[in-house]
């Protein structure tokens, strides 16, 4: 069952993010994984092979009520999903701060800008201004192609959309100015290979 | 009311972290704030004055059950606190990756090592190995002194404790090898002033 946030985005399982799993829970098997799952496995691999330290942040939750039963774990009984102020992923690679957002789209030829939000675009502008590496990873599920695109392009399209420009980023832009990420068995989505070529 | 995690640590409000607040919710007033609240206000100030981009990560939550009422927000009705794999705070300052954990202690002369956990210590070792800046911020609430201490010292005490060494870090170590963080009206806990002196 696919479930949805109030903003219409599919819920991809705040309870399944890498950050919240113990080592033994993270397996390398492939059984119809989402981009998020693929990235979590990839990040785990990068950590285990000591190439980088990059994590997905936990899903922000607003907690309203918690029960504290005696002799058992505190139980949250009322809480809501919140929109994050930042991107989902950050960390360090070769001494550099890395920051990115990852999205899937079912559209063949574009990704709607509503997959991102204003705080994220502002956040990525800040990151770049402070000397970090910022990008988006977008998977076009129809073709199973996954691209890395520098955050500057997102910012340009975002800003243009605010003054009447198109409300999506065409796949052609990813093909011309982005970088196809090689997909393997392990690492699954080898985005650091692209990062190394593009930013170092 | 002070509430506690299953591990005995006080719950400092996952619903109050900066990351989950909108701009208008973050005020600069001071009314008996915790170290976490002070750091959130401080980080907000750093972002607004464009000095750094550092955030507290959301509290990791394991979601067990979600209700999807028609025409209203998805409601989490069963969830539990999880232990984070990483530290609570990270970001970028002057092009450098910054990573730290912040803790308060009510003990006058030491902070128990049980305030940290193995994953965090390993995480900080990795961060330093990859060229990042890693430290802990510890507030001794009795004296209201807050110190910054390089993560290497935590690692040394942690590792020693595993082979019979003491289970706490003495305040004296903070005084001799750490750095007292200046406290002002704004920024509240000006740890970047220390970072700038120590690491740049």
From TrEMBL, chains A, B:
Class of the enzyme per the UniProt entry, highest EC level: hydrolase
Cofactor: Mg(2+)
Record-annotated site: Transition state stabilizer: 103
Lineage: Bacteria, Bacillati, Bacillota, Bacilli, Bacillales
Subcellular location, record wording: Cytoplasm
InterPro entries the UniProt entry points to: Resolv_RecU, Restrct_endonuc-II-like, tRNA_endonuc-like_dom_sf
EC numbers for this chain: 3.1.21.10
Function: Endonuclease that resolves Holliday junction intermediates in genetic recombination. Cleaves mobile four-strand junctions by introducing symmetrical nicks in paired strands. Promotes annealing of linear ssDNA with homologous dsDNA. Required for DNA repair, homologous recombination and chromosome segregation.
Protein name: Holliday junction resolvase RecU
Pfam families: RecU (PF03838)
Disordered as annotated region, ranges: 1-20
Organism of origin: Sporolactobacillus shoreicorticis
Reaction catalysis annotation: Endonucleolytic cleavage at a junction such as a reciprocal single-stranded crossover between two homologous DNA duplexes (Holliday junction)
Cofactor note: Binds 1 Mg(2+) ion per subunit.
Residues that, per the record, bind Mg(2+): 86, 88, 101, 120
Assigned protein family: Belongs to the RecU family.
Keywords from the UniProt entry: Cytoplasm, DNA damage, DNA recombination, DNA repair, Endonuclease, Hydrolase, Magnesium, Metal-binding, Nuclease
């Amino acid at each position: 069952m696919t479930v949805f946030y109030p903003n219409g985005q599919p819920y991809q399982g705040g309870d399944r993010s890498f950050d919240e799993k113990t080592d033994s829970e993270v397996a390398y098997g492939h059984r119809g994984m989402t981009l998020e799952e693929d990235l979590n496995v990839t990040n785990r691999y990068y950590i285990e092979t000591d190439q980088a330290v990059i994590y997905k942040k936990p899903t922000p939750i607003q907690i309203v009520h918690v029960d504290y039963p005696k002799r058992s774990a505190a139980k949250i009984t009322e809480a809501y999903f919140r929109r994050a102020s930042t991107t989902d992923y950050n960390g360090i690679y070769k001494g550099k701060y890395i920051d990115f957002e990852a999205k899937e789209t079912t559209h063949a030829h574009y990704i709607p800008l509503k997959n991102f939000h204003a705080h994220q675009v502002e956040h990525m502008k800040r990151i770049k201004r402070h000397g970090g590496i910022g990008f988006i990873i977008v998977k076009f599920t129809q073709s199973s192609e996954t691209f890395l695109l520098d955050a500057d392009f997102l910012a340009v399209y975002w800003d243009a959309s605010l003054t009447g420009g198109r409300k999506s980023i065409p796949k052609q832009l990813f093909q011309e100015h982005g970088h196809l990420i090689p997909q393997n068995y392990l690492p699954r989505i080898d985005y650091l290979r692209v990062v190394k070529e593009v930013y170092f």
